[in-house]
Amino acid sequence: MPIGDDIQQKEFRDSHQKAMINLMYTSTWLNERMRVFLAPTDLTPQQFNVLRILRGAQPEPLSTLQIRERMIDKMSDTSRIVDRLVKKGFVEKSTCKQDKRLVDIFISQQGLNLLKTMDEQELQFPSHLSALSPEEAEHLSFLLDKIRD
């Protein structure tokens, strides 16, 4: 459905305004679907992001600063997110051997198992971007990158 129909607005100042509103609306739409996907796991989108970052870094540990640099939401309180994941058993912390002032953060086997299950569940559902061809998805990524340049 066109953005004008979704938000019940017939006219836009120009195509740039329409694209900006469409981008914000679609971002919110995708975020809501992510929250529904995450609801059974009791994870927030930020916690899910941290788990995926840690899985991607393994077997190497990361510090909270390194995690924050890789996060989608840079404004997140990374230390608090990690502490909550530790309480849930998905993450482990230990003192850094090279610098005792730092903490190494690893994804636990329980966290890896959860992500594996979630990966399998995600494959069972049609992608929210399945209306796009692979070429269109690549072009969309290119355009989004271009906006941020």
What this model shows, in words?
The chain starts with a helix and ends with a helix. Helix content is 60%, strand content 7%. The mean pLDDT is 91. The chain contains 7 helices and 2 strands; from the N terminus they run αααααββαα. It has 2 domains: 1-41, no CATH class; 44-125, Orthogonal Bundle (Arc Repressor Mutant, subunit A), CATH 1.10.10.10. Strand 1 and strand 2 (103-107) form a beta hairpin. It has 149 residues and is mainly alpha-helical. It has a two-stranded antiparallel ribbon with strand order 1-2.
State the fourth-level CATH superfamily of the largest domain.
Winged helix-like DNA-binding domain superfamily/Winged helix DNA-binding domain
Low-confidence stretches: none
User: How much of the residues is beta strand, in percent?
Assistant: 5-15%
Overall pLDDT score: 91
What gap, in angstroms, lies between the N and C termini? 29 Å
CATH class of the largest domain: Mainly Alpha
CATH fold-level assignment of the largest domain: Arc Repressor Mutant, subunit A
Structural class: mainly alpha
The largest sheet has its strands arranged as 1-2
Rg result: 19 Å
SSE diagram, text form:
Layout: H1 3-6, H2 15-38, H3 45-57, H4 64-70, H5 78-88, E1 91-95, E2 103-107, H6 109-124, H7 134-148
Antiparallel strand pairs: 1-2
Helix pairs in contact: 3-5
